[in-house]
Amino acid sequence: MKKILLTLIAALGLATGAVASEQGMAWDKAPNSTNDLSSLQNGAKLFVNYCLNCHSAAFMRYNRMKDIGLTEQQIKDNLLVSSDKVGDTMKAAIDPRQAKEWFGANPPDLTLIARSRAGHGGTGADYLYTYMRTFYRDPARPTGWNNLLFPNVGMPHVLWQLQGEREPEFETHQEHGQEVKVFKGWKQVSAGTMTPLEYDQAVGDLVNFLQWMGEPAQNSRVRIGVWALLFLALFTVIAWRLNAAYWKDIK
Amino acid sequence: MAEFKEISPNASATEKLTNWFENRFPTAFFEYKKHMSEYYAPKNFNFWYFFGSLAMLVLVIQIVTGIFLVMHYKPDAAKAFESVEYIMRDVPWGWLVRYMHSTGASAFFIVVYLHMYRGLIYGSFRKPRELVWIFGCAIFLVLMAEAFMGYLLPWGQMSYWGAQVIINLFSAIPFVGPDLSILIRGDYVVGDATLNRFFSFHVIAVPLVLLGLVVAHLLALHDVGSNNPDGVEIKGPKAPKDAAGHPLDGIPFHPYYTIHDIFGVGVFLMVFTAIIFFAPEFGGYFLEYNNFIPADPLKTPAHIAPVWYFTPYYSMLRAITTQMMYALSLILVVAVAWTILKVRMPGFIKAALAGVTFVVLWTFGAFGITGIDLLQGIDPKFWGVVVMGGAVIILFFLPWLDHSPVKSIRYRPSWHKWVYAVFVVVFVVLAYLGTQPPSPTGQLVSQVGTLFYFGFFLLMPWWSRLGEFKPVPDRITFAAH
């Protein structure tokens, strides 16, 4: 009996191990905290300036950003493309047909990107945080850019002026008689306007905003949940004692 | 018709009002007594008995939240995904209603699986409760249809491709399959027509059937009375009764079990609420990550998995390969050979049996090993569908498969408990494997698991009789709380 169970467990271990090895590179942990309003606001700014040109957030309304501490006037003055109204959803100006021609695919909608990219490697935020920090120069690609996490990605490195240009360095070694390339680190080819630390922070803010945008109600959800659970705990205690009172005569 | 009852003019207003209704609608009073205040239930119910009432609670939650979702949802392929996000963002408390409904779907299956397992271990499906069990199995089957159709409605990638894969399974049925799958989809691929009909089925047709079956399940239960963890009848001719004819080992459902169930509801709602508010995706099991991408008929996801509650059956479907069909053919040959050699019956029946076996082996593709086209039999995919469906249908026959002399696991030989334990482990492992991408090891484990699952049921007439059974007490065992 025990043997069968152990065999099953071992078999499962093998199965999951096999899956894990197919996942590719490990994802870095995103430093996101969707309660940090200044980080969210900075993320919103980066999003509107860099992402929204090609990517829409078609389920997200501009004025929802009041939830991250901005006033309607601030949103109108700083974040809105002139033709849009503050109650509109965030639609990119790019023509889908042209986008397809330029990048090989229509840039995906980003409203829910932090939710849809979650997986075995971590949260969707971890994925995006890693993705935005692993672009490198690759003359072989039509855009001139490639990505370690998403090989042969259609998107060029939008934030390259901030990060500068980098190249990955690999180390080759023998494994099971095969030559394996292992990622070692980055080489900065040309400097960006930000230091690497500042850049990581900026991407962190951007990812934080994407995480928040995936579910704007997420923080109030948790807050309300605490109260709901407290109420239910009280309810359950009362029900438990009431039950005991009814049942005490049943012999 | 009952006699019109006069009441003293000095009676209180409440008594007068009650009397007024009782004269005009006696059925309500009669049924209330029959199903609540004078429905005697065994007093030794344990925690396993919470799950019936909890299933009812979840059903109500699903119906009520469903009503509110329909107010804002748009069953249109171009708008469905958007309207769900509209509910999540712009409808006041929409996110809560949606999470209640999505978590409720999973909770429904958790509660129903536990409820069914309770019936399994305490023999609640045995005579005279066969129909209660059959209605219950029908509820389970209908619930699966309800969940499957509901899952298409958010129109995400998993919704779309999950439906595509499952509907395509029907096309594996010989002759009628391809037309049948077009009939279900209303199109050659899953599309707007599919979404519209699934919406219609999900919000009205299937729930109506479900409610009807729940009523039948409860009425049949209240006619034969509840079983209990000891599997001892409390209302039988030999059972002790008080002067009024009520069973001594029973207590009125109301107030004793209503208050008891309210306590159970409290505990359940704490878990339910914690998931809704703190982990509504439940690690990608309740809301799959891929389903946050709008359906794209041109982009097949790398890994398509149904929601967790279907994965045990999905694993069994994937377990049926050509090799598995050879294994099943071998088992069939051994079983038939044993029957022909050991069981006494006229020669012509034996010959007929051998002939039928030969045909079945041909359809199984057992002779396909020769490489001759004509002997390939039916595609293993079809047998996979048969196995997947059979895994649910076989539950209906449980009352006639279990031949153990006692009902409850409590008085069965100790090793029976191990059989049930392995059954549970196998079911959970199959469920896990169904969520994972296919792998050679996983496939082998799921094949062994599938054989065990069917062996458990099909060999039950034999193994359930084996071993040393413990004496069953005359009355239930109950210690005052």
Question: What does this protein structure show overall?
Answer:
The complex is a heterodimer of chains A (251) and B (481). Chain A is α+β, with helices and mostly antiparallel strands and 251 residues long. Chain A has a domain at 22-130 and 149-154 and 200-239: Cytochrome c-like domain (Cytochrome Bc1 Complex, Chain D, domain 2), CATH 1.10.760.10. Chain A is 46% helix and 16% strand. Chain A has nine helices and six strands; from the N terminus they run ααβαβαααββαββαα. Chain A has helices at residues 2-21, 37-51, 72-79, 96-103, 113-116, 124-131, 160-163, 196-214, 218-247; strands spanning 57-61, 89-90, 135-137, 145-147, 164-175, 178-191. Chain A has a two-stranded antiparallel ribbon with strand order 1-2. A two-stranded antiparallel ribbon of chain A has the order 3-4. Chain A starts with a helix and ends with a helix. Chain B has 481 residues and is an all-alpha fold. Chain B folds into two domains: 29-304, Cytochrome Bc1 Complex, Chain C, CATH 1.20.810.10; 308-463, no CATH class. Chain B has 18 helices and two strands. Chain B has helices at residues 13-24, 26-37, 50-72, 80-89, 94-122, 130-152, 157-170, 177-185, 192-224, 253-278, 311-319, 322-342, 347-364, 380-393, 398-401, 414-435, 440-458, 460-463, and strands at 40-42, 250-252. The longest helix of chain B has 33 residues, at 192-224. The model of chain B has no long low-confidence stretch (mean pLDDT 94). Chains A and B meet through helix 1, strand 1 and helix 9 of A and helix 4, helix 10, helix 16 and helix 17 of B.
